[in-house]
């Protein structure tokens, strides 16, 4: 089977569940494409669940609840029923442990809005939502660690699983303008332009995603954490780790065949940029692959450690 695409979605504020945006429409489009191609399941990492020390966990709650989703109409999410994939969760734990991670099950984890509000937009009818496996981050926020988590999950793409990271391309809550949100439940009004540093990093992210493929993508996504405006764009590292997870799942030499795209974008709260990226694409039946020449030895040496780094 051909590789499924990988998505890095910027989930934004909770208003993204209710507001009509291009990003929300893109999530729906990606969900419709997934159903049309009969995806087997979804493996997702959000930005709001991280484990301490050197551990990582996978959700195995058979009947998870959903956390509160403030600033939106509860009717939009309260009756949407999660579809946890316990069998794949156990398999993911085994795959991670086989590669040196200290992975374990969490049978009590309830779903958080960073994952379920994206899934609701992708699959509005919960009965059609494919089985979902949620993987935590690690709170040390080591970029190589999270790249490798995605790399370990990558073989599932050949079996028809969709891999998704939900975080934020620009997500610094301290620089957001909250007045309209708190008073009127309005996050989309842009009375002033974003700050220059925010715009600078936003462009850097798009350039990295659109101009790099395969192992070069992994290396470039890690390098963005050294960008001079990174800390202005990401006050904490938690919303960037799902981007690295996605890059890890889409950063093998085989992934050089297809481009990565910015599918949609929504600005909120003046300084929060919700960019929606897709790495790769579905290959239709009968479509011929585009074969690339083998990379030079120098390129292999430069990027190989991104794929081989130990946990």
Automatic annotation (TrEMBL):
Residues 7-254 form the Extradiol ring-cleavage dioxygenase class III enzyme subunit B domain. It holds the Pfam family LigB. One of its GO terms (molecular function) is ferrous iron binding. Its cofactor is Zn(2+). The keyword Metal-binding applies. It comes from the Eukaryota. Keywords: Metal-binding, Oxidoreductase, Zinc. CDD domains: 45_DOPA_Dioxygenase (cd07363). InterPro entries: Extradiol_dOase_DODA (IPR014436), Xdiol_dOase_suB (IPR004183). Belongs to the DODA-type extradiol aromatic ring-opening dioxygenase family. This is Extradiol ring-cleavage dioxygenase class III enzyme subunit B domain-containing protein. It comes from Cladophialophora chaetospira.
């Amino acid at each position: 089977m051909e590789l499924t695409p990988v998505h890095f979605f910027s989930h934004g504020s909770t208003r993204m569940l209710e507001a009509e945006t291009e990003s929300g429409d893109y999530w729906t489009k990606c969900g419709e494409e997934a159903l049309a191609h009969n995806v087997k399941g979804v493996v997702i990492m959000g930005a709001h669940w991280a484990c301490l020390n050197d551990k990582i966990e996978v959700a195995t709650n058979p009947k998870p609840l959903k956390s509160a989703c403030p600033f939106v109409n509860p009717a939009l999410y309260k009756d949407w029923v999660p579809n946890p994939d316990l069998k794949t969760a156990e398999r993911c734990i085994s795959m991670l442990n086989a590669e040196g991670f200290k992975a374990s099950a969490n049978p009590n984890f309830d779903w958080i809005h960073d994952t379920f509000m994206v899934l609701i937009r992708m699959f509005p009818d919960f009965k059609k939502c494919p089985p979902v496996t949620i993987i935590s981050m690690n709170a040390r926020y080591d970029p190589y660690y999270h790249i490798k988590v995605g790399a370990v999950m990558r073989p599932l793409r050949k079996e028809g699983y969709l891999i998704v990271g939900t975080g934020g391309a620009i997500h610094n809550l301290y620089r957001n303008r909250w007045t309209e949100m708190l008073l009127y439940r309005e996050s989309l009004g842009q009375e002033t332009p974003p700050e220059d540093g925010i715009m600078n990093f936003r462009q850097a992210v798009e350039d990295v995603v659109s101009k790099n493929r395969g192992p070069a993508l992994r290396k470039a996504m890690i390098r963005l954490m050294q960008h001079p405006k990174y800390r202005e764009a990401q006050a904490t590292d938690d919303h960037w780790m799902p981007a690295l997870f996605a890059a890890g799942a889409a950063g093998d030499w085989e992934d050089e065949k297809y481009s990565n795209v910015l599918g949609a974008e929504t600005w909120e709260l003046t300084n929060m940029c919700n960019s929606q990226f897709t790495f790769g694409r579905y290959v239709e039946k009968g479509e011929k692959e585009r074969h690339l020449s083998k990379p030079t030895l120098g390129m292999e040496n430069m990027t190989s450690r991104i794929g081989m780094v130990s946990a």
